[in-house]
Design goal:
The structure holds two protein chains of two kinds.
Chain A (H helix, E strand, L loop, with lengths): L9 E10 L2 E11 L4 E6 L5 H8 L7 E6 L2 E2 L4 H4 L3 E4 L11 H9 L7 H11 L12 H14 L4 E5 L7 H18 L2 E5 L3 H7 L2 E6 L2 E7 H7 L1 E5 L3 H5 L5 E6 L4 E5 L16 E4 L2 H9 L7
Parallel strand pairs in A: 3-8, 3-9, 6-7, 7-8
Antiparallel strand pairs in A: 1-2, 1-4, 4-5, 9-10, 11-13, 11-14, 12-13
Chain B lengths: L1 H13 L2 H9 L17 H27 L2 H5 L4 H4 L5 H29 L17 H33 L3 H26 L21 H24 L3 H30 L7 E9 L5 E8 L8 E5 L5 E4 L14 E3 L5 E7 L8 E8 L8 E8 L4 E4 L5 E6 L2 E6 L5 E6 L7 E6 L4 E10 L8 E11 L4 E12 L4 E4 L5 E5 L4 E5 L5 E4 L6 E4 L5 E7 L2 E7 L6 E8 L3 E9 L2 E7 L7 E7 L5 E7 L1 E3 L16 E6 L4 E6 L7
Parallel strand pairs in B: 29-30
Antiparallel strand pairs in B: 1-2, 2-3, 3-4, 5-6, 6-7, 7-8, 9-10, 10-11, 11-12, 13-14, 14-15, 15-16, 17-18, 18-19, 19-20, 21-22, 22-23, 23-24, 25-26, 26-27, 27-28, 30-31
The chains are: A alpha/beta, B alpha+beta.
Chain lengths: 298, 658
């Protein structure tokens, strides 16, 4: 956590959310630096949606505090959101309104609004602007939501699983738009997603929620550097594997295959790297290694 | 404000079909005169009536539907996050949505009315609604429209609250049901009581209250305003604090709503209790007083301070100040009635009529009795009900029988059992003065007195005194006599305690007549003297001269003078009572009218007048005339009785009797 910068785009401190006796978020703290793309991962029910609701000031936590752009989000929500673009998990626009009507409504609420940009994005996404929102496909709804979120030139984008339920083409379109936006403006992005491959393309920091607790919060590069898959023949190295904090080890006829969380090059010093194989892991593999099971896509 | 306008406009635009549908519906009344089953009134009246009815229905139904869904459905279907993900305050979201619902509901009603307005069939608010509005057609229409908007707003808020509560399906629903039951029960009971008593007419907490917004002047309006404010505040808190969390919003709404309404209900209970417990000292105007024939009791009713149209009644002991509340004044809205109270001849029993239930609708009167000798006695309902339309009633000396004229019938019944003893039809006529008395056993007598400026040569009015009797055994009515006299001033007919004599009074007339036949017994003079019967049947006649007053005691048989008492330089002499057959008490006052009252005991045996102590008498502000001293702790009461055209005095116990 950065204790000296009060204007961090996101600062979450000791966030706790309860639903009756059930603890949905347990003392979660993290910060998101300016210009960062922060991906929050977690299985269904891990507490991501509760966290996003607290992040947007829609839900009051049982304990803890959330600041966006240096202001308390519960008390200053409306003014903060002039600088925040939001793409909800399930696009919740009024179903009877067309995309253009929704854009017109939103344009009155923000200090700056790029109406031409919205039109251009809708055109690019091939979303008809005069069809009621309720009649659009799921992918088109997400694209409309993204177009609206970007139209106010936000300092911060909050995307709550924007690709949930989308096909591969729609997912690709969303992420490409995001990448373009990031390249253009360097907007800070907070994204929760089940699309780990997509997140891997854009995120520079990753966090993982498991059963309401934040179990990982790390730069993508460092994470991918320390998580490795090793294959080597059995022997003296197997005994020393513990120093690399293996999270998964499998014995085969030809030797050992292990996924480690603390990979270090000096592990090989004693015997050299002959007869060994070291490979990088995808974000999905790291996620599975951390949470135990493959992430099910909705 | 920008956010409110945006949300408001969005809600309206989304429902753009509603105004069109309302406009289309507004065409239906144009064809109403030709629809089957319509009344055969003028077509314009039918069109405007149907349009008004449709408009009210459309507005109300839309208020319920939109109010119940505009926020609750978005919450239930998780679509309110759309607004909360924008730079919109919770207040703007709440106000924009509900204001749009109210405007749509009211606007749709107005659009239903538009076609008939355009062809000139404007509903006339001074017609059917005339009794509720003042200030002419325009102000009346505006007032009705404002009232209707208030109803729409209240309906929208209630529907919104109900929608949120029902959709959240949280355990707080149980609390809501309990709190709602308690609040409604309290409100229903208290408002029912207050309305019955006439609080709805005006509270008038302070001078100039009539200038305040009319809603604040009556208790139903205040309850509506408080409810509206509580619903609005709780609904706003539900959105601003609960935001997209439906259950949390419900919890906040319930806490806010009931923590406002339950204390308000308790305040209403307290107000009702206070309202219902005035004392005679709270009276600012006395509307009617009846004195017991003997003893210190009087019955009076009138307007109490800060209680609007409530006319509480009291039986008051002039001596001790003890009083019993009674409802014989409630519902006497025309204020032109004497108190419907009768006392037994010895002054120990009181009986009175109260409207049974809600005076707005009830047509029945209950007879209640009270034993005045017992301090712990409570009013006891007799087993008889009379019609509110009765024009006259009387009790027998022993208060066991009651006679009344109601619905053009003359009835006699047992007060205790309610058993009808006789019932005879009467003509459909109205009389200026009507008196019933129980005469000899088995016969009830009726006196009617009417005066008219007929085509005669004299200066006075033509007065007709009619005497008829009902035979309780046969149920037959016999007209005994009909006498005509020319009388100046207001004529009155007073029957003596034994009913065999009566006094016909006018400003130039004072006649002693036979109570049974009406025949003239004695002409007691026409010089402005005032006479009254003493409890033993003798007559006290007061004559004023240039040097003072003479009080003459006359024999009731032939009107012969028995005694004469002179009061030099005194012009106000009032007969108070007759403590014993040989003693009469009077009070006098000097010519200035400001000097203290003086008690006198007149010995009828010796003809001597013994001065007693100076007295402090409380003057009752009869129908607002005069100022109420606000004290029951005097030596008695004095008031002017307009129905019998005389000043009455009642003294407390304990004053010298001889």
């Amino acid at each position: 956590m950065n204790p000296v910068d009060p204007n961090l785009p996101i600062r979450v401190e000791g966030l706790t959310v309860r639903y009756g006796a059930r603890l949905a978020l347990d003392d979660v703290s993290f910060v998101v630096a300016e210009g960062a793309v922060y991906a929050l991962l977690g299985r269904n029910g891990a507490g991501k949606s509760s966290l996003v609701r607290c992040l947007l000031g829609e839900q009051r936590p049982a304990a803890g505090r959330v600041s966006l752009l240096g202001m308390d989000v519960w008390t200053r929500r409306a003014s903060i959101l002039t600088s925040v673009g939001v793409v909800p998990e399930d696009p919740d626009m009024p179903p009877a309104m067309t995309s253009r009507q929704i854009a017109r409504f939103c344009s009155r609420l923000y200090p700056s609004w790029d109406a031409a940009g919205v039109e251009a994005r809708l055109k690019r996404f091939k979303v008809p602007g005069d069809i009621p929102f309720g009649k659009l496909s799921k992918g088109q709804k997400a694209q409309v939501a993204l177009a609206l979120a970007l139209a106010s030139a936000p300092k911060l984008l909050v995307l709550d699983d924007p690709t949930l339920g989308l096909d591969a083409v729609a997912r690709k379109a969303v992420f490409e738009e995001l990448i373009g936006e990031l390249a253009d403006r360097g907007t800070t992005v907070f994204i929760t997603t089940h699309d780990l491959a997509g997140a891997e393309r854009i995120a520079d920091r990753v966090a993982v929620l498991r059963q309401g607790k934040l179990v990982l919060d790390e730069d993508m590069e460092a994470l991918k550097h320390r998580f490795r898959r090793l294959s080597f023949s059995s022997g003296e190295r197997e005994a020393r594997l513990a120093v690399l904090e293996p999270v998964a080890v499998a014995s085969h006829g030809w030797g050992i295959e292990a996924v480690v969380a603390r990979y270090a090059e000096d592990f090989w010093d004693a015997g050299g790297r002959e007869g060994t194989e070291v490979s990088a892991l995808t974000l999905e593999e790291i996620f599975i290694a951390l949470t135990g099971e493959p992430e099910a896509e909705s | 404000m920008k956010g409110f306008v945006a949300v408001f406009e969005r809600e309206i635009v989304e429902r753009w079909m509603l105004p069109l549908a309302a406009l289309a519906l507004g065409l239906v009344p144009l064809a109403a005169p030709w629809l089957p089953g319509m009344p055969s009134s003028p077509p314009a009246l039918v069109r405007s009536g149907v349009a008004l009815g449709l408009a009210l229905i459309v507005s109300f139904v839309l208020a319920v539907l939109l109010g119940g869904s505009v926020i609750a459905r978005d919450l239930g279907e998780r679509r309110l996050g759309f607004y909360f993900a924008r730079p919109l305050s919770g207040g703007a979201i709440w106000a924009g949505k509900l204001a749009a619902a109210a405007v749509l509901a009211a606007g749709a009603g107005a659009l239903v009315l538009l076609p008939v307005f355009l062809i000139g069939d404007v509903p006339d608010p001074s017609g059917y609604w005339g009794s509720f509005i003042t200030g002419g057609a325009l102000l009346g229409s505006l007032g009705l429209a404002a009232g209707w908007l208030g109803v729409i707003l209240l309906t929208v808020l209630i529907s919104n609250t109900a929608g949120v509560i029902l959709r959240s399906r949280s355990p707080w629903l149980l609390l809501d049901l309990v709190a709602l039951s308690v609040t409604v029960a309290i409100g229903w009971t208290c408002l029912g009581t207050l309305t019955r008593d006439g609080a709805g007419l005006s509270i008038g907490f302070r001078p100039g209250a009539s200038l305040v917004f009319p809603l604040l002047q009556n208790v139903e309006g205040m309850v509506a305003v408080v409810t509206l404010i509580a619903l609005a505040v709780a609904g706003a808190a539900q959105v601003t604090r609960g935001r997209t969390d439906l259950r949390r919003g419900h919890r906040i709404l319930s806490i806010m709503l009931w923590s406002a309404l339950l204390p308000a209900a308790l305040v209403l209970v307290g107000y009702t209790r206070w309202f219902e417990s005035p004392s005679p000292e709270d009276l600012v105007s006395v509307e009617g007083v009846v004195a017991a024939p003997a003893g210190p009791w009087i019955a009076l009713y009138g307007q109490a301070a800060h209680r609007g149209g409530y006319l509480p009644g009291f039986l008051v002991d002039a001596g001790s100040g003890r009083f019993v509340r009674a409802g014989f004044g409630v519902g006497s809205w025309d204020r032109g009635q004497p108190a419907r109270v009768r006392f037994s001849t010895d002054g120990t029993q009181a009986a009175w009529l109260e409207i049974s239930g809600d005076p707005t609708h009830s047509e029945t009167l209950d007879l209640l009795t009270l034993d005045l000798r017992r301090p712990d006695a409570r009013p006891r309902p007799a087993q008889i009900s009379l019609k509110r339309s009765l024009s006259s009633f009387a009790l027998s000396r022993d208060t066991r029988r009651v006679t009344a004229i109601q619905d053009r019938r003359w009835i006699v019944a047992e007060a205790g059992s309610g058993r009808l003893l006789a019932s005879a039809p009467l003509g459909n006529d109205y009389h200026q003065q009507e008196t019933l008395v129980f005469a000899e056993p088995g016969r009830v007598r009726r006196y009617t007195l009417d005066a008219s400026w007929g085509p005669h040569a004299g200066r006075g009015q033509r007065v007709t005194l009619s005497i008829s009797e009902l035979d309780v055994t046969t149920g037959k009515v016999t007209t005994v006599e009909e006498i005509q006299e020319e009388v100046e001033g207001r004529p009155t007919w007073t029957v003596g305690p034994s009913t065999d004599r009566g006094l016909l009074h006018g400003s130039n007339t004072l006649q002693l007549r036979d109570g049974a036949t009406g025949k003239l017994v004695a002409d007691l003079g026409g010089d402005g003297g005032r006479a009254s019967f003493l409890p033993d049947g003798r007559i006290a006649l007061l004559e004023r001269g240039g040097n003072g007053s003479d009080l003459r005691i006359l024999d009731a048989g032939a009107g012969a003078e028995l005694r004469r008492f002179r009061f030099p330089a005194v012009y106000t002499v009032l007969v108070a009572d007759q403590p014993s057959p040989d003693h009469v008490r009077v009070v006098t006052r000097g010519p200035e009218g400001t000097s203290p009252w003086q008690l006198w005991s007149l010995d009828l045996g010796t003809g001597e007048a013994h001065p007693g102590p100076r007295l402090t008498l409380t003057s009752l502000p009869f129908r607002g005339a005069g100022a109420w001293r606000g004290s029951l702790r005097g030596d008695g009461f004095v008031w002017y009785d307009p129905w019998n055209a005389r000043t009455v005095v009642v003294l407390r116990n304990g004053l010298p009797a001889t």
